[in-house]
C-alpha cells in the first residue's frame, strides 16, 4: 500500500486544525487556484484542493482518513525500523479498497477526484440478442458534477452550491448502442459515466462472435430424401432452408450473412445450424411398417462409441 495523499498538506493546515480553519483554508486556496483565475495550470491543484476538502470537511470521513493515515505511518515505521518517520505521499484511492464504504462515497460520489478508475460510475444495461442485431437506444440518467456558474466557488452563501463551487445535476442521455455490440462492452456516457452492456441468453441462439449458433430439428424422412424447411431467423420473416438429401445428425448448415453485424462495419456473421434428427411423432402403423422394411435392408446396427463433443 502506498502512502495516503496528505490532505492536510494540500490545504496547508495543521493536522489538528479545527473545521473552521479547514474551511477557511479551502476557500482561500480554491479562490487562488480556481481555473477561472489560474487557468489550465491551476486545474489539477484545484481538483486536489476539492478532493482534500471533501475528505476533511466531513468529520466522519476525516476520522476515517486520519485512521488510515496513522495505520499507514505505523506500518511504515515498523517495516523500516524504529526512528524512521518519513512517509512519501504518492497514494491513490485504489489503496483504500477494502477500507469500507466511506471512501467509496468519497471517490465515487461525484466529487472532484482525479482518478478515473475509481470515481467513474458504471451503469449496466441488459440487451436481447435481437437488440444486438438491430442496435438500440438506451435512456440513461447520470449525475454530473459541474463547476458552479453562479459563484465559481467564491461565495459561501451561494444559493446554488453553498460555496463548494460545484453542483451535481442529473443529466439524461439517449445512448445509442451500435448493432453488433459485444457482451461486456463499456461505452462512455458524457464526461464521467460509463455504460456496460450485457447480452441476455437467448432461448434459440447462442452467440459466437458475429455468428449465431442454433440447433435445427429435422425430421428423419426429410433428412433422408432432402427438402425445404421453414426457419425463423433471429429477426424478420421466416426463410426457407434446403436440407440436402442424406443429411446426417450433427451436420452443420451454414447460412451466410444471417448472423450478427460486425460492429462498425457492414460485414455480417453467419448462422450455423446443427442438424438434430428426430422422428415424426407419433409413429403410425404405416411408419412402423416402412421402417421395418428399411431395417431389413440394412445390416448395419451401430454400436460404436465416440467421446461426446
Ligand atoms: Zn456557487
From TrEMBL:
PANTHER family linked: DNAJ HOMOLOG SUBFAMILY A MEMBER 3, MITOCHONDRIAL
GO biological process: DNA replication; protein folding
Superkingdom field: Bacteria
Stored PROSITE patterns: DNAJ_1, DNAJ_2
Chain ranges passing through the membrane: none
UniProt keyword Chaperone present: yes
SUPFAM superfamilies: Chaperone J-domain, HSP40/DnaJ peptide-binding domain
Organism: Sulfobacillus harzensis
Stretches assigned to the J domain: 6-69
Protein name according to UniProt: DnaJ domain-containing protein
UniProt keyword terms in alphabetical order: Chaperone, DNA replication
Gene Ontology MF annotations: unfolded protein binding
Amino acid at each position: 500500500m502506498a502512502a495516503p495523499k496528505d490532505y492536510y498538506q494540500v490545504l496547508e493546515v495543521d493536522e489538528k486544525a479545527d473545521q473552521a480553519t479547514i474551511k477557511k483554508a479551502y476557500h482561500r486556496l480554491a479562490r487562488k487556484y480556481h481555473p477561472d483565475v489560474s487557468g489550465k495550470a491551476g486545474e489539477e491543484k484545484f481538483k486536489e484542493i476539492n478532493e482534500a476538502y471533501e475528505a476533511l470537511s466531513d468529520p466522519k470521513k476525516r476520522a476515517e482518513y486520519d485512521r488510515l493515515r496513522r495505520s499507514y505511518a505505523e506500518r511504515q515505521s515498523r517495516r523500516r525500523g524504529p526512528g524512521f518517520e518519513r512517509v512519501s505521499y504518492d497514494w491513490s484511492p485504489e489503496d483504500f479498497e477494502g477500507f469500507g464504504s466511506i471512501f467509496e462515497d468519497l471517490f465515487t460520489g461525484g466529487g472532484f477526484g482525479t482518478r478515473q478508475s475509481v470515481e467513474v460510475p458504471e451503469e449496466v444495461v441488459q440487451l436481447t440478442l435481437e437488440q444486438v442485431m438491430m442496435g438500440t437506444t438506451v435512456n440513461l440518467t447520470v449525475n454530473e458534477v459541474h463547476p458552479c456558474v453562479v459563484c465559481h466557488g467564491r461565495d459561501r452563501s451561494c444559493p446554488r452550491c453553498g460555496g463548494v463551487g460545484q453542483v451535481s445535476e442529473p443529466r439524461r442521455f439517449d445512448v445509442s448502442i451500435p448493432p453488433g455490440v459485444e457482451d461486456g462492452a463499456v461505452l462512455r456516457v458524457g464526461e464521467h459515466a460509463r455504460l456496460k452492456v450485457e447480452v441476455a441468453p437467448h432461448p434459440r441462439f447462442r452467440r459466437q462472435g458475429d455468428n449465431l449458433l442454433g440447433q435445427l430439428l429435422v425430421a428423419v424422412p426429410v433428412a433422408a430424401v432432402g427438402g425445404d424447411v421453414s426457419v425463423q431467423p433471429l429477426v424478420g420473416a421466416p426463410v426457407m432452408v434446403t436440407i440436402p438429401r442424406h443429411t446426417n445428425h450433427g451436420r452443420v448448415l451454414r447460412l451466410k450473412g444471417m448472423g450478427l453485424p460486425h460492429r462498425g462495419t457492414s460485414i455480417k456473421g453467419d448462422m450455423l445450424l446443427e442438424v438434430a434428427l428426430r422422428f415424426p411423432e407419433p409413429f403410425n402403423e404405416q411408419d412402423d411398417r416402412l421402417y421395418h422394411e428399411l431395417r431389413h435392408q440394412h445390416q448395419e446396427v451401430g454400436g460404436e462409441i465416440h467421446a461426446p463433443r
